[in-house]
């Protein structure tokens, strides 16, 4: 059996904070029904364009029950030490927290540039709460946080986003001619299946994301053949269960504008002039859309490498001719 290796990824979001002042956006208490460690959590949304708002952008932190590591690279001299969590406000000069369980923030200016500061997540949650408000323009670097749950006997998936770094941006004008939306991801994953929607011209790609602890969660990415027909055909033809893909794409969560032909009430043999006979509609959309494949490694894993209740069938394991491509 192949050893499961972590599939890494990242997201980048730029936009205006939404919902930060809503009830329940900020929470604090103790874990284990009030009997565990103190915790703080925050959940917000970011509007990245007039038609796209990304929800469930979160950070959770709790007071650790053991010593924490801090690091220094002052004058090129790398050092590491452990301290009690209560001593975090008295770190030696040049030391900071870094890595797992920490968040980078950029809420202050120094000499005209954004000054980054690292916090343990427990403190970072409060820093976000104290420095940001609705409509504050921000940038966020983070990663997928995939949750599965049972509902009416079905296993469902909820995709959230964990904040790794967050900072202030200059004012944003979504209507400016030079505005460019940033709501993107880059992610490695194991291909598990393909599903076609020929009417909508979309390819749905089952993706297995492996964590550092060798556990995994499954989500779905989409290739829109209306925009990327060649890409959709290549993903369908060239990937099978167990292949490793590294992709880039955009996070779509809102509405998508489209034009449709209006059916004429009468058909007396004329024709519709250019500029008439169409109407704009707003379709709700919530997709992780692949726009580029960066790398592909075939046959990395087999079904036996994963312990699951219902293994995926390799329905796309046969060779596919160009004439059989879906789009």
Q: What is this structure, in a nutshell?
A:
The chain has three helices and 16 strands. The protein is mostly beta strands.
At the first level of CATH, the class of the largest domain is Mainly Beta
First-residue to last-residue Cα separation: 36 Å
Structural class: mainly beta
Proportion of residues in helical segments = under 10%
> Helix count?
3
Strand content: over 45%
Mean pLDDT: 89
Q: What is the 3D form?
A: globular
Biggest sheet: strands side by side, in what order?
Answer: 1-3-4-11-10
| Number of spatially distinct domains | 2
Looking at the structure, the CATH topology of the largest domain is OB fold (Dihydrolipoamide Acetyltransferase, E2P)
Region (Disordered): 24-47
Protein name: Single-stranded DNA-binding protein
Biased composition (Basic and acidic residues): 24-33
Structural account:
Residues 24-33 have a biased composition (Basic and acidic residues). The protein has 327 residues and is mainly beta. It has helices spanning 31-34, 121-131, 229-238, and strands at 9-18, 26-30, 38-49, 52-62, 68-72, 79-83, 95-96, 102-110, 113-120, 137-151, 154-168, 182-197, 202-210, 216-224, 244-261, 278-297. A hairpin with a 5-residue loop joins β13 (202-210) and β14 (216-224). It is globular.
Task: Produce the secondary structure layout.
Elements lengths: L8 E10 L7 E5 H4 L3 E12 L2 E11 L5 E5 L6 E5 L11 E2 L5 E9 L2 E8 H11 L5 E15 L2 E15 L13 E16 L4 E9 L5 E9 L4 H10 L5 E18 L16 E20 L30
Parallel strand pairs: 4-11, 8-11
Antiparallel strand pairs: 1-3, 1-10, 1-12, 2-3, 3-4, 5-6, 5-7, 8-9, 10-11, 12-13, 12-15, 13-14, 15-16
């Amino acid at each position: 059996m192949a050893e499961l290796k972590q599939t890494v990824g990242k997201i980048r979001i730029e936009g205006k904070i939404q919902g930060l002042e809503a009830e329940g956006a900020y929470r604090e208490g103790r874990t284990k029904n009030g009997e565990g460690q103190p915790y703080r959590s925050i959940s917000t949304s970011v509007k990245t364009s007039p038609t796209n708002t990304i929800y469930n952008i979160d950070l959770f932190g709790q007071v650790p029950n053991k010593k924490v590591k801090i690091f220094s690279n002052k004058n090129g001299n790398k050092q590491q030490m452990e301290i009690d969590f209560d001593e975090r406000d008295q770190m030696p000069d040049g030391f900071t927290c870094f890595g797992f369980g920490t968040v980078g923030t950029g809420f202050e200016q120094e000499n005209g540039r954004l000054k980054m500061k690292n916090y343990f997540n427990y403190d970072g949650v409060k820093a976000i709460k104290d420095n940001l408000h609705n409509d504050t323009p921000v940038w966020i670097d983070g990663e997928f946080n995939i949750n599965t749950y049972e509902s009416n006997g079905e296993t469902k998936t909820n995709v959230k986003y964990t904040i790794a770094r967050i900072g202030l941006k200059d004012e944003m004008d979504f209507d400016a001619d030079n505005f460019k939306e940033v709501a993107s991801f880059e992610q490695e994953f194991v291909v598990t299946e393909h599903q076609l929607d020929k009417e909508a011209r979309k390819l749905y790609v089952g993706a297995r994301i492996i964590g550092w602890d060798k556990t995994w969660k499954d989500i779905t990415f989409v290739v829109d053949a209306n925009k990327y027909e060649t890409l959709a055909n290549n993903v369908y033809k060239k990937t099978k269960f167990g292949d490793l893909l590294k992709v880039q794409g955009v996070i779509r969560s809102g509405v998508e504008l489209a034009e449709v032909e209006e059916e004429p009430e009468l058909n007396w043999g004329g024709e519709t002039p250019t500029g008439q006979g169409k109407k704009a509609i707003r379709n709700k959309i919530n997709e992780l859309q692949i726009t580029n494949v960066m790398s592909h490694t075939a046959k990395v894993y087999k079904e036996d490498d994963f312990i699951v209740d219902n293994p995926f069938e390799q329905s796309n394991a046969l060779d596919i001719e160009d004439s059989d491509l879906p789009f």
